[in-house]
Specification:
72% of the residues lie in helices and 0% in strands. The protein contains 12 helices and no strands.
Length: 290
């Protein structure tokens, strides 16, 4: 059941990547982070559908995190980039090279091995974990505001992508450490509020990053930071472990997934363009957003 939720989350997130990229590129170049940007996105039906898919993906991942380690769930969510790549081929007519197909194969193989080596168990946390989540949320919100309100440059877009990825990793850690998912507990649980704030921060910063830097690079950075950071904090703070004697196998599989995702990202996320508007590698002109 938990692994099925991970697969469904990847499908939702992969589709959302396509829609978010198209919506973000429709915004005026001079529009910065703030109420104006939020109003424009709130009135964009494509972005609203993307948000619904993102929310569904997070909800499914949260269910999976009740029993699966962060490194497994986040690796599964990272495979959403492979879903986006396949959609670009099937729906938008993009072309992938042999290397990118190999990346998809590596991602799939790594996920299968991870599923076979994972230890199914709830998180083991204490008060220090909740404190770490709260502090990290405050730091990331402040960092995102500081970078996002500055002059729009490609470099700032890449920094925003990293902060967005870190925000999503905090969201995942918070979801992993929640004692139960009942509404009564969630309303009084600091980690639940941090999950909402970190998720909103990640969404806003990712939209801004997609406008200021190439979508391929932004997506790869967000996925990479989110996946690796989540794996590290899961092992350190949530007690995540592989099955006895299979730790090395889980590590190799995790690396295989990350490498495969990065290779696929370089193929060109649907809607990816460089700052001059040229198609990204692996993308046909028909695949570009209009």
């Amino acid at each position: 059941m938990a692994l099925a939720c991970v697969a469904a989350a990847a499908l939702c997130s992969g589709t959302a990547v396509v829609l978010q990229a198209v919506s973000a590129r429709r915004l005026p170049a001079e529009l910065g982070l703030g109420a104006s940007m939020a109003r424009r996105l709130a009135s964009d039906r494509v972005y609203l559908v993307a948000l619904l898919l993102v929310a569904s993906g997070f909800a499914l991942a949260a269910v999976a995190l009740r029993s699966l380690p962060l490194f497994v769930v986040q690796a599964g969510r990272a495979s959403s980039l492979g879903v986006a790549a396949v959609l670009s081929v099937v729906v938008l007519g993009a072309r992938l090279r042999a290397l990118e197909w190999a990346g998809l194969g590596a991602t799939a193989a790594g996920l299968v091995v991870l599923a076979l080596s994972v230890e199914v168990a709830p998180a083991t946390t204490d008060g220090a974990t909740t404190t770490a989540v709260v502090v990290a949320t405050v730091v990331l919100v402040a960092s995102g505001a500081l970078v996002g309100l500055g002059r729009a440059t490609a470099g700032r877009g890449l920094v925003l992508a990293c902060v967005a990825g870190a925000s999503f990793s905090v969201l995942a850690l918070a979801a992993r450490t929640l004692p139960v998912l009942s509404p009564a507990v969630l309303l009084t649980e600091p980690a639940a509020w941090c999950a909402v704030v970190a998720g909103g921060t990640g969404l806003g910063l990712s939209a801004l990053a997609l406008r200021h830097a190439p979508v391929v690079t932004v997506t790869a950075l967000m996925v990479g930071v989110e996946t690796v950071a989540s794996a590290v904090v899961g092992v350190v703070l949530a007690g995540d472990r592989a099955q006895a004697g299979r730790g090395w196998l889980a590590f190799v599989a995790f690396v295989l997934v990350v490498v495969g995702v990065v290779v696929v990202a370089r193929a060109g996320t649907p809607g990816a363009t460089d700052p001059r508007g040229a198609p990204a590698p692996g993308e046909t002109a028909a695949a570009r957003p209009h």
